[in-house]
């Protein structure tokens, strides 16, 4: 047995989360970068496992892969929930800020908190998992490495409850961020600029929407895992009993372990969360104007090094002409004419001769008073 769709979408998810990476790296948004990292790790594990154990459940030639993958499997849901908390917490800090600028010390503290939540918390849960790890790992046909957790009360506090807890806290921050946005929406653009957060209103709303989707999709999945563990809880006899013959590896054909609906959901649902979130992440940030401009620069760079690629005139033009709001005004105190008032033979120089091709162009005025206008456009 194999899950072809999971393998395909996991592979697509790897690509989708990496495409917007340069933009977020330049923006130095720690929460978004950590989310990209955890989604990439999850998609990579599910993609490799789905290929290696396509139609088999044999012992791996290198068990160290499953040792790492099964531990990361425990850390991924905690990492995704923690990054949602990092994002919503940052949005609240920006929206509630009354200071003109954020000091360098405040930025370092915020970064340290984000790293503590987005990396330290998942690593802590992965370490605590050893308390309730009954044996090394399982191999499931078509899905590969699966972590093993003794279903007792210690497992609830060591592993299971962290992800729902972080997601609920993130939801609380999200509500506060939305409240600040609605309360200060008229001057919100000024608030974002004064915070020097490299965000504009559209980016702020996209981050809020992304965190909301993470919460909406992630909370039911983590609550389901928590409820299943509560229903299947067993007493924790002792450390030695739980870790007896710890180094063994158990192998399961898909037909035996996916026999019931509850078991199928427990195995399949967590693996689909990462590809789904990767697609949603790309829809929010991978098709923006900035992202499309980044892809165009990549193509021009590749085309410059590979001249055999097709060339189009659009490659040297901007993707979209910005609307700068220009207009033509008649200067006061001047005799303004809407038609040509100077003869071509009185104009010398190639610059004016080149203007002959604009004779039939509507809205172009030759002669009269020439006004030089300099338009500056700030790109946020």
From TrEMBL:
Membrane spanning stretches: 6-25, 32-56, 68-88, 109-132, 161-182, 203-228, 272-293
Family label: Belongs to the G-protein coupled receptor 4 family.
GO-annotated biological processes: pheromone-dependent signal transduction involved in conjugation with cellular fusion
Keywords from the named record: G-protein coupled receptor, Membrane, Pheromone response, Receptor, Transducer, Transmembrane, Transmembrane helix
Membrane topology: Multi-pass membrane protein
Lineage top rank: taxon: Eukaryota
An example molecular function term from Gene Ontology annotations: mating-type factor pheromone receptor activity
Source species taxonomy: Eukaryota, Fungi, Dikarya, Basidiomycota, Agaricomycotina
Main location: membrane
Name of the protein: Mating-type a-factor pheromone receptor, putative
GO cellular component: plasma membrane
């Amino acid at each position: 047995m194999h899950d072809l769709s999971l393998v395909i979408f996991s592979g697509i998810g790897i690509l989708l989360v990496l495409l917007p990476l340069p933009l977020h790296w330049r923006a130095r948004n720690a929460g978004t970068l950590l989310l990209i990292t955890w989604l990439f790790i999850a998609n990579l594990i599910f993609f490799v496992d789905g290929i290696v154990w396509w139609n088999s459940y044999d012992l791996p030639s290198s068990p160290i892969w499953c040792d790492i993958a099964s531990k990361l499997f425990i850390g991924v849901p905690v990492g995704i929930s923690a990054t949602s908390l990092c994002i919503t917490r940052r949005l609240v800090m920006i929206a509630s800020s009354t200071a003109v600028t954020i000091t360098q010390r405040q930025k370092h503290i915020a970064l340290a908190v984000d790293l503590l939540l987005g990396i330290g918390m998942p690593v802590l849960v992965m370490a605590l998992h050893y308390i309730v790890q009954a044996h090394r790992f399982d191999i499931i046909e078509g899905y590969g490495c699966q972590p093993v957790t003794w279903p007792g009360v210690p497992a609830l506090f060591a592993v299971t409850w962290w992800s729902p807890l972080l997601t609920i806290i993130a939801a609380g921050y999200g509500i506060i961020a939305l409240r600040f946005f609605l309360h200060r929406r008229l001057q919100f653009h000024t608030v974002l600029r004064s915070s020097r957060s490299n965000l504009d209103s559209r980016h702020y709303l996209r981050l809020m929407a992304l965190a909301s989707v993470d919460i909406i999709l992630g909370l039911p999945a983590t609550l389901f895992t928590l409820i299943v563990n509560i229903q299947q809880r067993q007493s924790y006899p002792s450390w030695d009993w739980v870790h007896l013959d710890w180094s063994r590896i158990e192998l399961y054909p898909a037909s035996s372990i996916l026999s019931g609906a509850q078991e199928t959901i427990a195995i399949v649902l967590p693996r689909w969360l990462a590809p789904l979130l990767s697609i949603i992440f790309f829809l929010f940030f991978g098709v923006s104007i900035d992202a499309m401009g980044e892809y165009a620069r990549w193509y021009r760079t590749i085309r410059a090094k590979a001249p055999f690629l097709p060339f189009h005139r659009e490659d040297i033009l901007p993707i979209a002409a910005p609307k700068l709001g220009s207009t033509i005004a008649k200067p006061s105190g001047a005799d303004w004419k809407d038609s040509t008032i100077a003869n071509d033979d009185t104009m010398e120089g190639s610059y004016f001769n080149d203007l002959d091709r604009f004779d039939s162009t509507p809205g172009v005025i030759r002669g009269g008073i020439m006004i030089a206008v300099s338009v500056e456009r700030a790109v946020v």
